[in-house]
């Protein structure tokens, strides 16, 4: 043991003092032995000097040091394994947390991109409706009604053309129906003339009433307010009013009384037969 202590002798440093005395000091303590040892002891070597039960210093690398380290490894193995498992579990939780945060960021980016795409689509749709309204000569609020009106007029024109091209020869039953219908129409006309405050039946009204929905499918009020801007856009100084033409199939105005009307309208204010 003395020989080993000699091999690990401490360095001696002398310092001059006022009375020319020599001051001896020891080298800094190194807890790792200057030799090859098991790596399992590397993490459990105490940083401070080691002493046995009798108070004697245990030199790093000696037989007593290896005995002490072996027993220390056995005593602390369970705790070190538990700490290693805790560290592994903490690292796993941190990894899951990082993945969750990354997923949340990706989801937020997807939401922002989707919101941006929807905003772009809405802007493009508004531009399309605005251009369509300019084409039809109206405002975006009434463009759907204007499209429906054009479609209805085209359909009525085609229906009228087909009926004129494929007219059926009237039969006796058809003649009776037409005569009865004509009589009913004359009675209705006479009633409406004598009672102008009464509105026309729904069956006689034109089917071109304004749509209850705008182009965004929002319900419009029953009597919508037409702004001055819309009136200015839709103003047509030279437009023909179809209600004044009785030969128009879409006209729902009151027709003039025929010269061959019956006595039902003799008291009418309109012009009629003198007999």
Q: How would you sum up the global shape?
A: rod-shaped
Q: Count the strands? A: 2
End-to-end gap: 158 Å
Element order, helices and strands? HEEHHHH
For the biggest sheet, the summary is: 2 strands, antiparallel
Low-confidence region ranges:
1-17, 202-209
Number of domains: 2
Strand order of the largest sheet: 1-2
Category by helix and strand content: mainly alpha
Task: State Rg.
Answer: 54 Å
Report the sheet-strand fraction. under 5%
What does this 3D model show about the protein?
- With 275 residues, the protein is mainly alpha-helical.
- It has 2 domains: 1-136, no CATH class; 141-166 and 205-245, no CATH class.
- Helices cover 48% and strands 1% of the residues.
- It is built from 5 helices and 2 strands.
- It has helices at 2-7, 63-136, 143-165, 172-194, 228-233, and strands spanning 50-51, 57-58.
- Strands 1-2 form a two-stranded antiparallel sheet.
- Residues 1-17 and 202-209 have low confidence and may be disordered.
In brief:
48% of the residues lie in helices and 1% in strands.
Topology (elements, then pairings):
Layout: H1 2-7, E1 50-51, E2 57-58, H2 63-136, H3 143-165, H4 172-194, H5 228-233
Antiparallel strand pairs: 1-2
